[in-house]
Design a protein that fits this description.
Length: about 110
């Protein structure tokens, strides 16, 4: 699966997401792009999933008709040590996610 990692996600986490083609927003050439435009660029570039920690994304953007799925990771911080325990849940979510879905992984209290 082709996954775009938001700028808030440490690039090294992609190595834990084995079996997926992961690029960071800067690597894709989209650095500094706001979320609405970023989602359009991601779709145009063939990304299937946008992985972010932005819990409000689905409320800030009109996601109706989007082909790109959104995986929102809830974690204490964006440090790799806090994200690594969520790897298995994230991989399971990536295996099941469908175009246009918004899926959350991690503790609901964050």
């Amino acid at each position: 699966m082709k996954v775009l990692l938001d700028e808030c996600i440490p690039r090294k986490w992609r190595f834990a997401l084995a079996g997926h083609d992961c690029l960071t927003v800067p690597e894709a050439g989209f650095a500094g792009t706001k979320n609405g435009a970023l989602l359009m660029l991601a779709e145009a570039a063939g990304f299937e999933v946008f992985l972010t920690m932005d819990k409000g994304l689905q409320y800030q953007q009109n996601l109706t008709g989007r082909r790109v799925a959104i995986l929102v990771v809830r974690s204490r911080s964006n440090r790799l040590r806090d994200l690594l325990p969520l790897t298995d849940d994230s991989l399971a979510a990536l295996a099941a996610i469908q175009p246009g879905d918004v899926v959350h992984v991690g503790p609901t209290s964050n």
